[in-house]
Amino acid sequence: MTIPKLFYRQALKYGKERVAMREKEFGIWRPFTWHDYLENVKHIALGLVSLGLEEGDKVAMIGDNRPEGLWAEMGALCARGVGVWLFQDSLMNEVKYIVDHSDTKFIVGEGQEEVDKAISIIGECPKLKKIIWDDPKGMRNYDQDYLISLKEVMRLGRELEKEKPGLFEELIGKGNGDEVALLFYTSGTTALPKGVLLSHYNMLTMGKNLMSVDPCKDTDDYVSYLPFAWIGEQMMSISCGLQIGYTLNFPESSETSQENIREIGPHVMFAPPRMYEQMTRTVQVKYLDAGLIKRKSYEMASSIGYHVADLKFAKKAIPFHWKILEWIAYALVQKKLKDHLGLSRVRNAYTGGAAMGPDHFRFFHSLGVNLKQIYGQTEVAGISVVHRNGDIKFDTVGHPIPETEVKITEEGEIITKSPSVFLGYFKNPEATAKSLKDGWLYSGDRGFIDEDKHLVVFDRTKDVMTLKDGKPFAPQYLETRLKFSPYVKDSWVIGDQKDYITAVICIDYSVIGKWADTKKLAYTSYPELAQKPEVYDLIEEQIRKANKDLPELVKVAKFVNLYKELDADDDELTRTRKLRREFVGKKYEDIVNALYSDAEVVHIDTTITYEDGRKTHIKTDLKIRKVTS
Amino acid sequence: MSFGRVCALDGINLKIKKGEIHSVIGPNGAGKTVMMNCISGLYHPQKGSIYYKGEKINHFKPHERAAKGIARTFQKVEVFGGMTVLDNIRLGRHIHYKSGILSGSVYIGKTAGEEIEHRRFIEEEIIDLLEIEHIRHKPVGMLPYGLQKRVELGRAIALEPELLILDEPLAGLNLEEVEDMARFILDINQEKRWKITCLLVEHDMGVVMDLSDSVYVLNFGNMIVDGPPEEIQKNPEVIKAYLGEEDLYASRK
User: Fold this and answer.
1) How does DSSP classify residue A523?
2) What are residue B167's phi and psi, to 5 degrees?
3) What's the whole-number mean pLDDT along residues B58-77?
4) In angstroms, rounded to a whole number, what is the distance separating the alpha carbons of residues A99 and A583?
5) Residue A210: HSE in the Cβ half-sphere, 13 Å Cα cutoff
6) Are A479 and A506 in contact (CB under 8 A)?
7) Where are the domains of chain A?
8) What is the CATH number of domain A464-626?
9) Angle at the Cα of A121 (from A120 to A123), degrees rounded to 5?
C-alpha cells in the first residue's frame, strides 16, 4: 500500500458525499469534497509530470497550512515524486540549504514572500527548475520564465489528462510501499538539519498503530494549523487523516487559528507543548483580569478540578459527592472555558515534540481535557509511545503503541524498533550508521522505564547536567516549571558541573507589559521593561514558586532577565522552538560567566540584526539577582 | 488659503495625473495638511480653484466630493473606536448603499441582499488585501495604532475612490508596519482591481522616494519644486529646506 493508493481508494469511497477539507476564506468556511480533492490532486500531479517531474524527483513545499499545500504534496506523491516541506518562516540560508541538499526540482510556494525566497536562491541551486505559486497577490510584476502559477500547472495537467487518459491511475499503480515518500529535515539542535527518508509504509503503519490505540471516526474534525514541516502535523493530516477520513480544517490565517479552532471544535488535537502553554497563559491572564465573582468561581472550579484529576492520576475511585461537585464545576466554569479554548469536543489531545511541565499537564486534566503525552521523533514517522486512557501519569509518556518495541540501553539511551523506523538519512551514511543499528533506532534521548512500565524521558543525553553531588539533572524539567508562570515566556537553565543552578529568563512582553500598565510603570521597550527592579521582584517571586518543593541543589539560585526574546531567526531556538543550548551558551558566554562570579551586573555590548538587514547597536547592563528563599 | 493673517498656502499649483502616486513633502507647518483639507473639502480656500476630472469642486461639501470619488485618511487616525473593524469599513461603503432608511431599519426586501453583496466586497477585496482577518470583529479602539491605521485605509478604499488622499499613513508605525503599509499603497495603486490615484503626504523619505511617481515640495505655504523623485533628491533648495545636508534617507529598494 502507498499513500497515493490509499488516497485514491478513499477519494472514490467518499466521493462527492463527504467533505475532505475545509478552509476559511473571506470569512466563510469553504468545503472541498473528496471528489474535489481528487480532481485537484490529479491535475497538479499530471501538471508536474508534464513539467518534467520524474520518478524520485523532489518537490519542496513552503507556505501556511492551506488546501493547496496539501494538494501539492499529494500531487507530488501521486506523480511518483518525493515531498519535502519547509518551515514557512525559514530564513533564506535555511531554504537554500534544504533545497540544495535535497536536490529539489520544483518548489511550490504560497505567494510573493515564498517566491521571493525561491528566486533569490535559484541561482545557487542548479537542480531547481520551476517555482510554482498559488496566491496571485503582489505577483503582478513577476515575469521570470521559471515561475508558473498553480492554476497553470493544473491546466497543463488537464491537457495531459485529455491526451493520455488513465495516466494518473497508472502512475499510482506503479507505487510500492517501500519507496521513499517524504524527505523530512529535522531541526537539529546542534548541527545542520539532517534529511530523514520516510517510506509510504513508515507513514501508513504509523497512522494505523496510533489509530488502533485511540480510534477516530470519519465524522471527526481536525484543525490543521501547525507547520506541515513538522512530522506531527503530517502524521495527523496524512498518516491518520487519510486512513480514517476525518475532515481537515484550515484556518483563515495563522493569526486566526485559535479563533478558528474554537469555531470548529476539533475532536482530536496534536500540538507541541508551547501551544498548550499558550492556552494556559491565556487562561491565567484572563483570570488576573477578571472581576471578583469570576475569579472566585474559577478558583472553586479549579480546586475541584485538580482534586478530581489527582484522584484519576492515582487511579482511585471518585466518591459520589465529588462527582456532583465535578459536575457543578463543569456546568459553571469549565464548559465555558473549554469552549473558549476550542476544547469542548476534544476526545484526545496529544502533546509532544518537547517536554511539558507537570503543572501544565495537571492544569488541562483539572479542566477535564484528556491530554496525553506522546514520545516520538521524525525518525519513527511520528510517535512511538503514548498514554492510554485511564492510565495517565504526568511525569511519563506512557506505553509503546502496537508493533513497537522500546528498550533502554545500558547507557540509558532510549531505543525503538517498529515498522515506522525510517530508511536512513539522505546523503549522510555516517549519521545513519550511528542512529540505525540492527533495525533499532538510537534516539539520543536518555530515559528509563518506571514500575508501571511507563517510559520516562529524562532529556536529550547531551543536555543532561551533572550536579555538584554527581547526580544527573534534566534542565528542561526546571525550565518547564518556570514557564508555568504567565510572566515567563522562555527560560534557560544553566548549571552543568557548577556549584549552583542559575537561569536566564525571557519575560513575556505582553503579559508583563500589561502588568506594568496597571502598576503605572513607564517603559519604552523590551530591554527597559525587563530591567525594571519591580519586574525583577515579580520574576523572583515566580522563581521562588517554581523552586518550592525542590531539593536544595536544584533550586535556581541566581537569575538574569535577558534583553530580548529567544528567537529561531537568531539560531537560538530550532524551528520547533527547542533551545539550542550549545549555541546560546557560546553566544551569551559573558552572561553565564557573570552568573558564576560575584558580579551584580553584566555589561552587554552587541549588535542586533533586524529582519531587513539593518543593524542596531545595543549597550545595556543586565542586573543579576540572587533568589532569596 | 489663509487663517486670519496667517497665509497657510499661497501660489500653489499642483496637478495630479491619473494613476500616479504623487507625494507632497515639506517641513512641519509647511501647509501639507491644509492642502489636503482643501482638496477633501474640510477647508474652503478663499482664492484659487480646485478641479477634479475637469470640474471645479470648490463649492462642494466633503460628502459630495466623496460621492465623486475622493477619499482620504487622516494624519492622526480618525476611526470610530467603539465600533468593530467591520463596521468601520462598512461605513466607507455607505455611499454605495441604495436602500433607504425604512427598508434598512426593518432589514427586508433589497436591503438584505444588498448587505450580503457589500459584505462580500469587504471580505474579498478589503479584508483580504489588508490582511486583517484576525481582527474583523474587534472594536477598533482596542487595537494597536498600526492596525488602526490599516482599518482607516480600509474604510477609505471601501468607498472605491478614484483619488485617495493619504495624510502621513506611515507616521508612528514600526518598521514592519511601514513595510506592510507601503506594500498596500502600491497594491491599491497598481493592482488592476483598484488603480487608485494616490496623493501622499509623508515624512519617511525612503518610502516617498521609492513609491512616488512625482514629488511636490512645499515650504511655508509655497511650492519649491515639483518633479520626479530623482530630480527632487538632487535639488539644492530642497536639500537645504527639508532633506538636510546629510544623507538622512535611504532607499529601501
Assistant:
1) -
2) -95, 105
3) 91
4) 24
5) 34
6) no
7) 3-175, 271-461, 464-626
8) 3.30.300.30
9) 100
Residue A472 pairs in a beta bridge with A466
d(CA A363, CA A305): 9
State the Cα–Cα distance between residues A303 and A298, nearest whole angstrom: 8
H-type helices in A255-318, by residue range? 257-264, 273-289, 292-313
Instruction: Choose the closest CB to B187 out of A27, A138, A253.
Output: A138
Where, residue-wise, is CATH 3.40.50.300 in chain B? 1-69+161-253
Nearest CB to B133: which of A252, A610, A612?
A252
Handedness of CA A173, A177, A180, A184 (dihedral sign): positive
Number of neighbours of residue A589 by Cβ within 10 angstroms: 10
Which helix (H) or strand (E) segment holds residue A21: the answer is strand A19-25
Beta bridge partners of A609: A615
Q: Cβ of B195 under 8 Å from any chain A Cβ?
A: no
Residue B251 has pLDDT above 60, yes or no: no
Who among A27, A610, A612 is closest to B136 (CB)? A27
User: To which residue does cell 515566580 refer?
Assistant: A542
Q: Cα(A198)–Cα(A376) distance, rounded to whole angstroms? A: 14
Note whether B125 contacts A: Cβ–Cβ < 8 A.
no
**Helix (H, G, I), strand (E, B), or coil: what is residue A485?**
coil
**Interchain contact, A253 vs B133, CB within 8 Å:** yes
DSSP-assigned letter for residue A220: -
List Cα–Cα distances, B18 to A607, B15, B208, B214, in angstroms: 45, 10, 18, 12
- Encoded amino acid at A135, one letter: D
Q: pLDDT at residue A109 above 80?
A: yes
Cβ-defined contact of B123 to A610 (cutoff 8 Å):
no
Tens-digit pLDDT profile for residues B76-126: 888 999 999 999 999 998 888 887 777 778 777 778 888 888 999 998 889
For the segment A274-309, what is each residue's pLDDT rounded down to a tens digit?
Answer: 889 889 988 988 998 889 999 999 999 999 999 999
Is it true that A3-175 and A271-461 share their CATH fold? yes
Give the span between the Cα atoms of B204 and B172, in whole angstroms: 11
Q: How far is CA A552 from CA A243, A548, A556, in A?
A: 51, 10, 9
pTM of the model: 0.85
Give the separation between CA A189 and CA A151, rounded to whole angstroms.
Answer: 38
Asked if residue A365 has pLDDT above 90, the reply is yes
Within 8 A by CB and 6+ apart from A599, the residues are A624
**Superfamily classification of domain A3-175:** ANL, N-terminal domain (3.40.50.12780)
User: In b/e form, how buried is each residue of B101-127, taking b as 16+ CB within 10 angstroms?
Assistant: eeeeeeeeeebeebbeebbebbbebbb
pLDDT, tens digit, 9 for 90 and up, residues A560-573 = 999 988 988 888 88
Nearest Cα to Cα of residue A540 among A488, A500, A596, A464: A488
List of chain A residues whose C-beta atoms are within 8 Å of the C-beta of residue B127: 26-27
- CATH 3.40.50.300 applies to domain B1-69+161-253: yes
Residues with Cβ within 8 Å of B203's Cβ and at least 6 positions away in sequence, in order, are B25, B168, B170, B171
B53: phi > 0 → left, psi -120 to 50 → alpha, else beta; which? left
Instruction: Identify the residue with better confidence: A46 or A471.
Output: A46
**Residue A221, all three cell numbers:** 474534525
What is the average per-residue pLDDT within A158-168? Answer: 93
Contacts of A610 in chain B (CB under 8 A): 175
| ipTM over the 0.85 cut-off | no
Residues of B in contact with A251 (CB under 8 A): none
Q: What is the pLDDT of residue B245?
A: 47
* CATH class of the structural domain A271-461: alpha beta
DSSP A120-164: HHHTT-TT--EEEE---TT-TT---TTEEEHHHHHHHHHHHHHHS
